[in-house]
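4.2 Preliminary Data

To establish feasibility before requesting continued support, the project team ran the inverse folding procedure on a target of 223 residues. The structure was first converted into the token representation described in Section 3, and no sequence information of any kind was made available to the design step. The complete token record follows.
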């Protein structure tokens, strides 16, 4: 049932938003660092912080050789810059120590399970970040769940809000559709399914949304 619902969700979202385009950059290390910068901030601030980081430190080795304070100052636009600087340097240090070079290209030679395990072993890297690298850099069918997708999937009745949403949703993602669903569900969360004052009437998923149905029933009951 959930698999069928997700097929319909995918169809409706592609009709509403179109098929998302794949990113121009497939450098897994760049995607990893961008994702660390994106946590709990806007895409605009993430992009500003990443651009400032690479302008000041053109090579990954330069970031690793810099002081934590210098890196933190460069990524200030992202917020939580000291914590992020510490995490970025810890990740780069781990990669350098283990691989003798600052590259994640080797992940492509591993099985998906081995790559996931390795990414999750990095300091501060959880499933969402690991899955973004796997999906965006290598095209592996992992479905990252951010705060928008967690909220939308719960309101749609796809997840009960308990446990790990990655584990709950993964079995039902239509084959080959993880990328499209990931990006389009984020759009739903940003544009319509907001934490407060959701714009249910305008949402392309309103007809199949349990949250919307409960709201309408409540409004009818209170009339």
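Position-by-position output of the design step:
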């Amino acid at each position: 049932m959930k698999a069928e619902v997700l097929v319909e969700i995918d169809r409706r979202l592609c009709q509403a938003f179109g098929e998302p385009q794949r990113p121009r950059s497939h450098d897994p290390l760049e995607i990893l660092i961008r994702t660390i910068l994106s946590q709990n901030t806007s895409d605009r601030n993430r992009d500003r912080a990443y651009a400032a980081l690479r302008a000041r430190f053109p090579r990954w080795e330069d970031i690793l050789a810099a002081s934590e304070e210098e890196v933190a100052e460069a990524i200030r636009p992202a917020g939580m810059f000291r914590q992020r600087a510490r995490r970025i340097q810890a990740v780069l240090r781990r990669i350098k120590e283990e691989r003798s070079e600052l590259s994640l290209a080797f992940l492509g030679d591993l099985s998906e399970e081995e790559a996931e395990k390795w990414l999750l072993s990095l300091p501060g890297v959880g499933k969402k970040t690991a899955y973004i690298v796997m999906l965006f850099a290598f095209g592996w069918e992992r479905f990252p769940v951010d705060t928008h997708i967690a909220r939308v999937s719960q309101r749609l009745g796809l997840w009960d809000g308990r446990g790990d949403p990655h584990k709950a949703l993964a079995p039902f993602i239509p084959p080959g559709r993880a990328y499209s669903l990931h990006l389009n569900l984020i759009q739903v969360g940003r544009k319509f399914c907001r934490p407060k004052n959701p714009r249910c009437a305008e949402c392309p998923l309103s007809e199949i949304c349990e949250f919307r149905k409960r709201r309408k029933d409540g409004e009818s009951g209170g009339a």
